């Protein structure tokens, strides 16, 4: 029997992985060969999207925000948001391998799709039309909100969290973008609240019931209804585990500042009642460590930067003069610093091990 290859073909997010994965692999490993190897297929994928979209609005949904609990978005909002993202990364990938004409063409396409998204789905108060949490998450993630409306849009976004009693209601597409975009909107406090919730629906709700792996459904089992439909109720399913990205890049604070971690950015953000977090990541260039703890009114941060790399470390504090490294004030330790608008301190580091101590932000 011939396999059914049509299920999910070209589906937003699912099918788009064919274009997204080479881009992300490049970001983490710094090797353009993965782009070069798949470039012809990437072009065909974009050709397909251009041919099946109308006035830069993409309509093919596929599975959509699978298993959302009412916090999804209008089909065209999801599809067009991803279409804009794909055009953007296609322009960047083409430029990386010297395809200048294609890079310019996709940059123009991205601008047209972005404007179409704004014209069709963003009103003059910053509201994303016919959308809940997922619509705002995608719009912030893919930079689809005009700068002058971003603050207002963030307010609408938070109201969509409040509408669900301070809980998430997203599915497979919205959930990976939820916490990172709340951070982008300046609301780490709300992101932490969602992370630390223990009532349904939430990540820790499953943990309170004894789960040791991520469930396919938020309601795979609930005290009042028992098990969900056994025809599709995996108790070891990745999708909602995408929250791990925010734990790594925001709680521990490790992310690439240049492809392949040639440059590293470390910006731990304490919150949610956490007093300790530690992560080590074995990057293509070596081990990176960010390990912090709060003791009283002191914030302590240990970092390890691998050889042949540089790093920017952002230290949250209310008093720049309180920061020490290895027991020495930063000027005495020979560490260049820069003060950010929010009072955080940026330290420019070479490879090595560092032990910072500072007063907490509050």
Q: Could you explain the architecture of this structure?
A:
There is one protein chain. The protein has 362 residues and is of the alpha+beta class. It has helices at 17-29, 33-52, 75-96, 100-121, 133-141, 150-163, 175-184, 188-196, 203-208, 243-251, 330-333, and strands at 221-222, 226-227, 254-256, 263-266, 276-283, 286-295, 298-305, 310-315, 324-325, 328-329, 337-339, 345-349, 352-359. It folds into two domains: 17-187, Glycosyltransferase (Alpha/alpha barrel); 253-359, Maltose phosphorylase, domain 3 (Sandwich), CATH 2.60.420. It has eleven helices and 13 strands. The strands form three sheets. The chain has a six-stranded antiparallel beta sheet with strand order 5-6-7-13-9-10. Strands 3-4-8-12-11 form a five-stranded mixed beta sheet. It has a two-stranded antiparallel sheet with strand order 1-2. A hairpin with a 2-residue loop joins strand 9 (324-325) and strand 10. Helix 2 runs antiparallel to helix 3 (75-96), helix 3 packs antiparallel against helix 4 and helix 3 runs parallel beside helix 5. The longest helix has 22 residues, at 75-96.
């Amino acid at each position: 029997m011939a396999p059914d290859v049509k299920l999910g073909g070209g589906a937003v997010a699912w099918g788009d992985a064919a274009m997204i994965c080479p881009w992300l692999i490049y970001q983490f490993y710094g090797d353009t060969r993965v782009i070069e190897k798949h470039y012809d297929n990437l072009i065909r994928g974009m050709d397909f999207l251009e041919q099946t979209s109308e006035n830069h609005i993409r309509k093919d949904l596929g599975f959509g925000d699978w298993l959302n609990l009412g916090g999804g978005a209008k089909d065209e909002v999801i599809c067009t948001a991803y279409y804009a993202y794909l055009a953007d990364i296609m322009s960047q990938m083409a430029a990386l391998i010297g395809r200048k004409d294609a890079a310019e063409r996709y940059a123009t396409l991205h601008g047209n799709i972005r404007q179409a998204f704004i014209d069709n789905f963003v009103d003059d108060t910053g509201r994303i039309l016919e959308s809940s949490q997922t619509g705002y998450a995608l719009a912030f993630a893919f930079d689809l909100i005009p700068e002058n409306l971003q603050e207002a849009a963030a307010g609408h976004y938070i109201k969509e969290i409040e509408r669900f009693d301070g809980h998430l209601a997203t599915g497979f597409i919205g959930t990976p973008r939820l916490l990172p975009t709340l951070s982008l909107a300046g609301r780490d406090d709300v992101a932490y609240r969602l992370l630390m919730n223990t009532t349904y629906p939430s990540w820790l709700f499953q943990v309170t019931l004894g789960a040791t792996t991520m469930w396919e459904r938020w309601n795979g089992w609930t005290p009042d209804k028992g098990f969900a439909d056994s025809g599709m109720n995996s108790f070891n399913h990745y999708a909602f585990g995408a929250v791990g990205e925010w734990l790594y890049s925001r709680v521990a604070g490790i992310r690439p500042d240049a492809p392949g971690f040639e440059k590293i950015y470390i910006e731990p953000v304490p919150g949610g009642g956490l007093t300790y977090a530690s992560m080590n990541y074995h990057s293509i260039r070596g081990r990176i460590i960010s390990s912090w703890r709060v003791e009283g009114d002191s914030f302590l941060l240990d970092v390890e930067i691998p050889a042949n790399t540089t790093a920017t470390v952002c230290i949250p504090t209310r008093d720049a003069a309180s920061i020490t490294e290895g027991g020495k004030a930063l000027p005495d330790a020979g560490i260049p610093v820069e003060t950010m608008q929010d009072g955080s301190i940026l330290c420019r580091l070479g490879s090595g091990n560092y032990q910072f101590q500072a007063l907490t932000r509050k």
